[in-house]
User: Fold these one by one.
Assistant:
Number 1:
Amino acid sequence: MAGKSGSKGEESLASPDVEFNPNQRLSSVLLNEFNYLSWARAVALALGGRSKLGYVNGVIQKPKSDSSTYDSWLCKDQLVMSWLLNSMESRIAEIFSFSESSMHLWKHVKEMYGNQNNAARIFQLKRDIADLQQKDKSFVQHLGSLTSMWNELDVYRPHTTEAKVLLKRAEEDKIFQLLASLSSNYEDLRSHILMNADLPSFNSVCATIQREEVRKKVMNMENKTSLSETRAYVSNHKKEEERTYKGKRTDLKCSYCESVGHVKDRCWVLHPEQKPKFSKEGKILQNGWNTSSHKASLADAYSTGSLKNFTSNPALLMNEFAAYLNNRQIHGKTEEPTITENESHTAFLGKFAGFLAETDCVPHEEASGSRHQEDDW
């Protein structure tokens, strides 16, 4: 009876109901891209405690399909597979959900995440440990966070007394401290160094950083030179646009100088006084007839004060009247006279009309040019 009861106790211990729950997780730590070592250790311990580690390490071989033990092996192997998948993050589990067996699943996970260089993860752990602050967490929570990172770091760096390994770790720690002290401008270089299959030596890392610094300086100088040239080009182009004479017309051609853009009456070669002058800013200061000085001279020429001598010199009055008609013929079609010019013209015509009314007082010998007699009309 005692033997029977003992065998029943061993059977209940070996196969409790919890072992047949396919939704069970083997570890509270779920597999992601960075924690394979800690995850694999926790899962191996859980499987060993359930006498199922042989299904993933190859100790328990797959029997032939026609064997009497095949169904039993398949049932337990699929149970182990479900445990492994439930111990992964969902996005990771989707990658391995169609594995043939638990051994193939375990092997593929190791190939994908177990053979990665651990330098980047060690660097991140050391950085997180150095930057960790308690803040609003309780001491127990804060200690738990530190302990978790310490334990993971121990997995990547197990304790040893070998001098060669200790010297290598000391050099790695200097590299980690140097990379952590760099500014964010070297983030790409830092990632490149940490992702190498073998971490370079400290001197090699220093040389790489120095070359990158020189490259950045050269690139900045080239960018500044290119920017200065662009600004100079834009500034000069803008000045040229401001100095461009916008009145040019391609449908006009001068019969005097045979140039395109103007006619003979507006030719600067024939009439240099019409050529506009430009200021330093490229603006037109004056343009031939269309100037205030020209209008002022006309107003002065025909002002009331300048007509005082006309009555005493009829010949001068006739010559001035001819000049007046000539100027009106030239400018009257293109410009509108101002109020001052209208007043001057009216005064001049009025003075001339008064002179004609008093023609008997004008000696004939003082008048120049041909005279009209009664027989001419």
Number 2:
Amino acid sequence: MKKLSDRAAEDYRLVTLAVEENDQMAYAQLMDRYRNSIFHMMLKMVRNKDDAEDLTIEAFGKAFRKLDSYSPSYAFSTWLFKIASNNCIDFIRKKRMKMLSIDEPISDEGGADYSNSLKADLLDPEERFIRQQRRRIMQELMERMSDKYRQMIELRYFEELSYQEIAEQLNMPLGTVKAQLFRAKELLYDILKNAKAQRGL
């Protein structure tokens, strides 16, 4: 392995802690080191602050899921930026500018489908009832989550607090909030998939 710069060596140390020990602080520190750079790159690509924030979280989530495949033969930042860029390009290509990444449809007991997107920029008056039903279904599914992750979803998507506001309210580092929020979204997505499978859809 080639000699690493001080920054690259620290990145590799954090990656090793995250992969081998599932060290949550290591994940949070990696986010703290690169989230601003990733966010500004996303913002330049989509020109929407909210989308850029969510794409930043998604980029870290995708990177963290495949963190064990990272090799220190190239810079962690290069590897991370490539993942973020590809994810953003996919987002733009799919023309999903009004949706968050969780967009599988879900059904209620009567078989009616509702988008489980947690946020849309605009809603027509005719969509208000569907939005209420969607929230009811989402809240029922969220009861299966731990208190920590359910609170994250509620604060971000139902109370519509910013990441900074959540960090201040919970007295937590901003990086930890973003890492836990991504995990909460991932858990919710798994619950949604399981609920759909149980209905035989």
Number 3:
Amino acid sequence: MKKQFLTLLLLSFSLISFYSCEETKEVATILDPDGKDSVETVEINKFVLGIEAEGAQDVLLTTETLTDGEVSPIGNGFEQPAWMSFFKAGNMIIAAGYTSDNIFTGYALSDQNGELENKGQLITDQGVYATTNVDENHFIAIGAPRAGFEERTIFLIDKNDMSIAGRTKTRIDERHAEDLVAFPSGVAVRGDKLFISYFLTKSEKIGDTPKAETAKIAVYDYPSMTFVKLIVDDRTSEIGRYTTDFSLQEDENGNLYSFSTASLASGFNPAPNVPSGFLRIKKDETDFDTDYFFNFQEKSGGAKINTAVYLGNGKMLVRAVVADQQHWSAYAPNIEEGYEHLSFMIADLNTQTVVPVSNIPLTGGGEMAALVKEGKVYVNVSNSKGGSLYEIDIETATATKGASIVGHYAKGIFELSATVE
């Protein structure tokens, strides 16, 4: 009788965990039955920051810690060709051109050495203003011209080779008689539906928004990208804002939440005469939940949402406008010291309560950099003197100052992982 050999996998794990939020490594050793020909793999996690350095030069770099010391782009990371936006795309980061020629570059950790590497580039024929990660293979970006009534584009991007797998042209919502056109502010895919939030703006001037007093979403079938319908809600204003990546977010139960700023500082002019707050589209539904509206402006004592990031367990971190007096003023990360007017608060979507975060200063605005990790959320705080990272304890709503940014500020805070042999 032939002797059968059974393969025995013995896993020996060595876990190095730095609770000051440093990079982690998990080592696995796989042995054959005789203890020979072992293969050691290392699971590496690294923090990745998109930083605006001196001279407005954007850099994407890795760092070992978020909580102390300095994060410096000097001699470190990938210099970008222009002013960029940084998006999380699963276990990849995509840098997208804003003032450059719509260049998309994918970055991930190498499975050879764990270092950050360029995974490929593509170019879109329109600027991109709303994105979402779909799955391990695909990423969606919504393109739009900055002026005129040209069709908008839904780009389906294949992350495996950084290529455009599909383009769908759409007009979303056009009102020629009023010179108003839809500008995308957010996108989400849930099941077999794709949702695009948008605001109506004058065709030649982004930010003139005379019809902003209702929330608006276009619903499409996915993956066919076939238009289904428009949905509106008059309890709050248009959803999201110009160039934010958090307008539509799904919770653990499959509910989709949106935020509305109703804010002059956040880009709407005139400021909508409706409250800033959260709406919900329940799981498996494609209409706004008529039984749910979280009036954030009322519950916070008058603040308005600038950006909100879902933290888990029904909680949102809100970067809130506390002085809504000047158009576009929440888009100044390097705002003059003493003129900061954005603060951090934690909003509970279930109890509809708001708690201010303590021990954190007011900040300038711009893009929202936030990383949620193990009961904490890490954010950028900046003004004309520079930027720093802060660690916020979600349960206690208290903050601790972390690493300083060498340069201006952090535009994105991420974590990537790789399995390295």
